Amino acid sequence: MTQVDDCIFCKIVNGEIPSAKVYEDDDVYAFLDISQVTKGHTLIIPKEHTKDIYHTDSGVAEKLFAQVPKIASALKQSFEPIGLNLLNNNEEPAGQSVFHLHIHLIPRYGAEDGFE
Ligand code: 5GP
Ligand code: ZN
User: Fold this and answer.
1) pLDDT tens digits, 39-67
2) Where does this chain carry the motif Histidine triad motif (predicted)?
3) Is 32 part of a structural domain of the chain?
4) Which residue's CA is minimally distant from atom 13 of ligand 1?
5) Does the C-beta of 90 come closer than 6 Å to ligand 1?
6) Segment 67-90, tens digit of pLDDT
């Protein structure tokens, strides 16, 4: 499993940085985003360090995406949103700030969308 020393998401996978775990298997880890844009905002990442979608081989992508429906359904059940956005930012101009591939799962609640 390739990991990178100065990568915060590798540290989260290793347990060096605490996180609120949503799901874990041998290849994938999902956890709540530290600054949630909506309630239940979750990130799903491969345990294998890969910088962005361009540097991700299909096998890693396959295992990552394979878990999305299950995690999305779990979020729907727990938080009862009325919609859900999947988002993946690649490279800084597109909004990527952590350079370990991740997919955002963002539950949506309608006009109010906010939460305390
Ligand atoms: P990006 O902007 O790269 O698409 O998304 C990175 C996300 O990682 C941001 O939404 C940010 O809030 C989240 N994040 C950054 N550092 C941490 C952390 O230490 N723990 C958690 N749980 N999320 C983090
Ligand atoms: Zn990493």
Assistant:
1) 999 999 999 999 999 999 999 999 999 99
2) 100-104
3) yes
4) 33
5) no
6) 999 999 999 999 999 999 999 999
